[in-house]
Each structure stands twice: as structure tokens, then as C-alpha cells.
Design goal:
The chain is 35% helix and 20% strand. It has helices at 3-20, 23-28, 46-59, 72-80, 95-103, 133-140, 168-177, 192-201, 220-227, 272-281, 283-291; strands spanning 35-42, 63-70, 86-89, 109-122, 130-131, 159-162, 186-188, 205-210, 230-231, 233-234, 258-265, 295-296. Strands 1, 2, 3, 4, 6, 7, 8, 9, 11 and 12 form a 10-stranded mixed beta sheet that branches. The protein has a two-stranded parallel ribbon with strand order 5-10. The radius of gyration is 23 Å and the shape is globular.
């Protein structure tokens, strides 16, 4: 989004607000490019949330977005209670959640911003880095519990390690498997770093984290995480071709554990939450996501003009 567009929205919003409120009340209202709000973010998505907020603050110095790292369920509860104006999670609201908002006569706006994925990490000594979709599902359901059942290259009990018990990663995988709880060999850490460090020191572990934590190849933290672990490739259902969750593979029918990320906003007017959502969905915000190694929801067109000229004769300037 260009600055001019944001300022146009802000001016229109302020004009409407001032016409109906006293000057002191109107001054307290946030606009699409100014004021203060809080945004609840699923902990698996905090790297991109902070990156977006930092650049937005750089462009609009009178605006401030406070990022609150929360579990997915807490994000939705915060939005329902109106303690935040916008949230960032790895899915849309489900039917039950929509009904709850409808009961309070509110219909949140859901804006897709990118495609993320669930990443699987194993110990550096583990050569079983190609796993089929069916094998992953069997492991997550607790049906496959030993590495000898995967492809016979190694043995030992499989230990599943999650970033957080209540993260969007967990709910996504439970929805995929149709299970109500993770298997008995699954353990939850408090942070992504703890999950990665556990995998780095336990040969039979599989670490399960949000891809955005290790997607940016220029991030020193990403290089450190991937230096001490190995990234698993997963084949789509019914296929024998394996893909890592790289940006180019986050398209339909390739890496099978990708997910759409949404910003869900609760506003009855064009305020800062709407302005920030438009920024993330606009040109600059989408470039930030592209740089972070995710697949932007709103791809920018690139027009390349090719001019063909006749080749000049030898000795002549073409």
C-alpha cells in the first residue's frame, strides 16, 4: 500500500468521526495510520508478525502495534472479548467460533496474508529425511512408534516434540489426523528454541514447529536452527516425490502440510487494525512475507518487456 492511500483513508475516517463526536473524543480514536492497538498472534507466527509491525512503524511513526504472543485459542478468545482488534492465526474461524461472534452481532473480517507450513526436524545423524504423507499421519496418530517401521534404516522409539501444547501447530495436526489428542510419545516444550535443542540432542526425536521460524535463510536464528538439525521432506498423499516446505513448494499438491495464514479483524470502522491489515496484504507487506520464505497471498505481477532488434552486420553498430 502506498502512503497516499493510507492517508486518504485516514482523512475520510477522521472527517466522519469528527462530524459525530466532540473534539476530545475524536482525538482518542485511532486511524488507519495512527494510534495504538494490540494484536494477538499465534506463537508459531510471531517472526512474521514482528517483521510486519516493525516496518509498519517505520512508515507510520504515529502508529504502534503491540504484538502479544498467544496460543491460537487465546488469540480467538482475545478477539471475542474485544481485548485486541486483530489477530494472526493459521486458519479461518470455524463454524462454532463464527456462531459465537454472530451471537454478539459481529462478523469479523478474515484476510488471507500468506501460506505457511508445518516443518519437521530430525537429529543430524538421522538419514530418514524422506517421509511419506501416510507415514507422517501414522506417526502423528501413534500407530508408528519406532523408526524401524519407517524404512528400516534405523531403530529406536520415536519421540515427537512440539513447540507448544496449545499452539496452532497442534490444532492443525489434530484436525489433519482426526484425533482428539496427540499420541503418548508426544511432548510439548515452551518455546521453539527448546524444541529445536531437544531434537539436536536426541537422535530419535522429531521436532514439529511452524515453518516461519526457520523459513528465512538470511536470519541468523534460522541458520543456527538448521545447522543443528535436518529438515524432513514429505511427499503428497499418494505420491513418491518428496518436498521440503520451501517457498516454491507451498502451492497446492506439493508440500502437503501447508496452511493459510489469516489476519482476523474486529472493527466497526476504518481504524488502525484495518490499516495494518491493508498494509500486510499490500505490496510492502507481501514483499516482507516473500523475503521471509513464505508464499504471499497477494502475489505482485512482474511485467517484463523484451525488445527484439535485428542483428547488425559485422563491423556495424547494432
Amino acid at each position: 500500500m502506498k502512503k497516499g492511500l493510507f492517508f486518504s483513508i485516514a482523512i475520510a475516517c477522521l472527517a466522519t468521526s469528527c462530524a459525530n463526536q466532540s473534539p476530545s473524543a475524536s482525538e482518542e480514536l485511532d486511524t488507519p495510520v495512527s494510534g495504538k492497538i494490540s494484536m494477538a498472534v499465534d506463537e508459531t507466527l510471531t517472526p512474521i508478525a514482528y517483521a510486519q509491525a516493525d516496518i509498519f512503524h517505520h512508515h507510520y511513526e504515529k502508529a504502534h502495534i503491540t504484538v502479544k504472543e498467544r496460543s491460537e485459542s487465546d488469540c480467538i478468545q482475545d478477539l471475542y472479548k474485544d481485548s485486541v482488534k486483530t489477530i494472526m492465526i493459521g486458519r479461518k474461524l470455524d463454524a462454532k467460533e463464527r456462531a459465537a461472534f454472530k451471537a454478539i452481532t459481529f462478523d469479523p473480517l478474515e484476510t488471507p496474508i500468506c501460506v505457511d507450513a508445518i516443518a519437521f526436524l530430525v537429529h543430524p545423524s538421522n538419514r530418514d529425511t524422506n517421509i511419506t504423507y501416510d507415514q507422517i499421519m501414522s506417526i502423528l496418530r501413534g500407530q508408528t512408534t519406532n523408526w524401524s517401521q519407517v524404512n528400516g534404516k534405523r531403530s529406536g522409539d520415536i519421540n515427537l516434540v512440539f513447540d507448544n501444547a496449545n499452539s496452532g501447530t497442534t490444532s492443525y495436526l489434530l484436525n489433519m489426523t482426526g484425533e482428539k489428542a496427540m499420541p503418548k510419545n508426544a511432548y510439548a516444550m515452551k518455546t521453539h528454541a527448546e524444541a529445536v535443542n531437544y531434537v539436536a540432542s536426541h537422535e530419535n526425536a522429531i521436532g514439529i514447529i511452524g515453518w516461519s521460524w526457520v523459513s528465512d535463510s538470511d536470519d541468523p536464528r534460522t541458520r543456527e536452527f538448521l545447522k543443528k538439525t535436518r529438515l524432513v521432506s514429505v511427499s503428497p498423499k499418494g505420491s513418491t516425490t518428496f518436498y521440503k516446505p520451501y517457498q516454491g513448494n507451498l502451492i497446492p499438491n506439493k508440500y502437503p502440510l501447508s496452511r493459510e495464514v489469516y489476519m482476523i479483524t474486529r472493527e466497526r470502522r476504518a481504524g488502525l487494525a484495518s490499516g495494518f491489515t491493508a498494509f500486510v496484504h499490500g505490496e510492502i507487506g507481501q514483499l516482507i512475507l516473500l523475503k521471509a520464505g513464505l508464499l504471499p497471498a497477494n502475489q505482485q505481477e512482474r511485467n517484463i518487456e523484451i525488445k527484439v532488434k535485428p542483428v547488425g552486420e559485422v563491423g556495424n553498430t547494432p
